[in-house]
Design a protein that fits this description.
Layout (H helix, E strand, L loop, with lengths): L1 H23 L3 H12 L13 H21 L4 H24 L5 E3 L2 E3 L2 H30 L1
Antiparallel strand pairs: 1-2
Helix pairs in contact: 1-3, 1-5, 2-3, 3-4, 4-5
């Protein structure tokens, strides 16, 4: 039971962050802030050829919001939880990939390599997403066995 509470606390953290950042994506400030991340990413920069800067930010924001809602629904509907967990993993892997695609993201400060530390939170979020997938898979298996 203790493990379940810890998972739920982690899930709440992921969901609140996705919702909050997803909503913030609809602001011009955040759209401009993520522009260099998207422009320098070889798998994402094409989005600017079909959408405006705000349009790309809105698309990312609505995706984050839908995934967050799906992760909550997944507590009761494991199939939704499974697919939302996969989508969350994709979001966090993509975000972590910015550490390798954004020019100048790594700096040397007083001899210590540092980066945009806000990106590193996604390592923990990736783990919670993975747990969500595993929990959902187990619930789906259990449900199939009981039928």
């Amino acid at each position: 039971m203790q493990q379940e509470r810890g998972y739920l606390v982690g899930l709440v953290g992921v969901v609140l962050t996705l919702l909050w950042i997803g909503i913030f994506k609809f602001t011009p400030t955040e759209a401009e802030a993520i522009r260099p991340l998207i422009e320098s990413h070889p798998l994402m920069n094409w989005l600017f050829s079909i959408l405006s800067v705000q349009g790309v930010s809105n698309l990312i924001g609505i995706t984050e919001i839908i995934v967050a809602i799906g992760m909550v629904v997944g507590i009761w509907k494991p199939k939704v939880g499974y697919w939302s967990g996969l989508a969350a993993m994709a979001i966090f892997i993509t975000t972590l990939s910015f550490l390798f695609t954004l020019p100048g993201v790594w700096k040397l400060v007083d001899g210590v390599p540092v980066t945009e530390f806000f990106i590193l939170k996604d390592i923990v979020f990736l783990g919670i997403s993975w747990l969500s997938i595993e929990k959902s898979k187990n619930l789906i298996k259990t449900d199939k066995v009981s039928k």
